[in-house]
Amino acid sequence: MRSQHTTEEETHQTPGIVIPLELDGLRMLKQEMQADGKLRVEVIATKKGEQCPHCGTMCVKQHDVRPRRKHDVPLRGHVVELVLHKRRFWCLRCRKAFTESDRACGRRRRTTVRLREEIGKQASTRPIAHVASHYQVGPRFVQACLEGVASIQLAKRGLSLEEGATLPTPRCLGIDEFARRKGHRYDTIVCDLDGRHVLEVSAGRKHEDVTGVLERLADCEAVEVVSMDMSRTFREAVQLCLPRARIVADHFHVIQHVGKAVKKVIGRWAKSAQGKQALDGQFHLFLRNQEDLSAEEEQSRASLAQAFAEIAAAWQLKEDLRTWYATASAQTAAAQLDAWIAHVKQAGPAELRKALSAFRDWRSEILAFFDFLPTRLINGFVEGKNNRTKAILRQAYGYRNRRHLRMRILLEEIA
Ligand SMILES: [Zn+2]
Predict the structure, then answer these.
(1) Which of 173-187, 200-214, 294-308, 327-341 has the lowest mean pLDDT?
(2) Which of 107, 208, 323, 399 is the most buried (most CB within 10 A)?
């Protein structure tokens, strides 16, 4: 006669069918494919007994066993239904039965911890609805798994899902805005530039919205430098809340500011009889960085530059500014900037001359960039973040709520 034990061993060893379960503390009793393609795996805990939760006595006397259906991670594309044979032990001292604990799922959970983790991880990079349909679970459950994973991840950086919690103070802070919907509903994004991650995404970009976030920093005195776009609201909020911090105008935004003026020059010529056809669809040749153009594109750009001297001049001034950023030092920056400004005044089209006002208003903040070399404060980090934000928005159709978007952005890893 075979013992129960032998039967289990044989099932376990059936070649080609059984897939190892690798659930800590559980052993497999049976595994079978269902007609609907689900894999049903029956398991039981390996431990011999358990401490009574009431009196702490170690109990080994089994009272009864009840099957509990759980949902586990898919195996080789099959949905796994776990049937956990949950035992109840009898405490001889309390004269009471109690159910054994279950580390794989947790108390009163119908899913394994590892399934919840896997779903949460998937949902941090994929749309909720896709993940829900892949795992055949509800979107609310996916959302809960995502928040579970997110809380753990964020806690490692001293952050939490609770909006309003105290924020860890970075030495270098980046502040920027982004449009939650194209062209309107702006939010403010605050980053730790040393740690290369987002600290907070908060609603609005008005003075009180920004001061509201900055006041949550654990130690406002500890911020040494704040990099930002040329927004007066941001500057005033920082001067108020972080009085010791130096403000640096983010070089990406400064170049972008001049780039917009270049675009206006091209736009003006594109309306002329001469430019209508020649410039149609060619703006990018002058707006992209020169080194990012292909040889062919550079050739088109050069021939257009020959035909439109004003565009060529505007473009050259923008490229000169980029060169200044790449090559100047704290010692040479001010004099070289003055030379560039003089050049714009003398040779620049009206649109560029108009753009110079920002260089008056923000002169010290623009030059401060060179005091923090070679840290190279931003390198388009915040801006890169914004592009990523746009991608997240595109992905998160139907998830217009801010809490969800905020969590997704906070979870983003920064290269
Ligand atoms: Zn007891």
Answers:
(1) 173-187
(2) 399
Length of the chain: 415
Show the 3-state SS of the chain.
CCCHHHHHHHHHHCCCCCCCCCCCCEEEEEEEECCCCCEEEEEEECCCCEECCCCCCEECCEEEEEEEEEEEEEECCEEEEEEEEEEEEEECCCCEEEECCCCCCCCCCCECHHHHHHHHHHHCCCCHHHHHHHHCCCHHHHHHHHHHHHHHHHHCCCCCCCCCCCECCCCEEEEEEEEEECCEEEEEEEEECCCCEEEEEEECCCHHHHHHHHCCECCHHHCCEEEECCCHHHHHHHHHHCCCCEEEECHHHHHHHHHHHHHHHHHHHHCCCCHHHHCCCCCHHHHCCHHHCCHHHHHHHHHHHHHCHHHHHHHHHHHHHHHHHHHCCCCCHHHHHHHHHHHHHHHCCHHHHHHCHHHHHCHHHHHHHHHHCCCCCCCCHHHHHHHHHHHHHHHCCCCCCHHHHHHHHHHCCCC
- Residue 93 CA, ligand 1 centroid: distance in Å: 5
User: Count of alpha carbons within 13 Å of 203, Cβ hemisphere only?
Assistant: 7
User: CA nearest 257: which of 209, 198, 301, 317?
Assistant: 317
The answer to whether 385 and 191 are in contact (CB under 8 A) is yes
82 CA to centre of ligand 1 in angstroms: 29
Cβ pair 55, 93 in contact under 8 A:
yes
Cα of 301 from ligand 1 centre, angstroms: 84
Question: In angstroms, what is the span from residue 103 Cα to ligand 1's centroid?
Answer: 21
Most confident of the following: 23-27, 196-200, 342-346, 396-400: 342-346
Mean pLDDT of 147-171: 91
**C-alpha 47 to ligand 1 mean position (Å):** 18
pLDDT tens digit sequence for 235-248: 999 999 999 999 99
Here the tokens at position 51 are 């401490």
Report how far ligand 1's centroid is from the alpha carbon of 21 (Å): 32
CA 43 to centroid of ligand 1, rounded, Å: 26
Judge contact between 187 and 180, C-beta under 8 A. Answer: yes
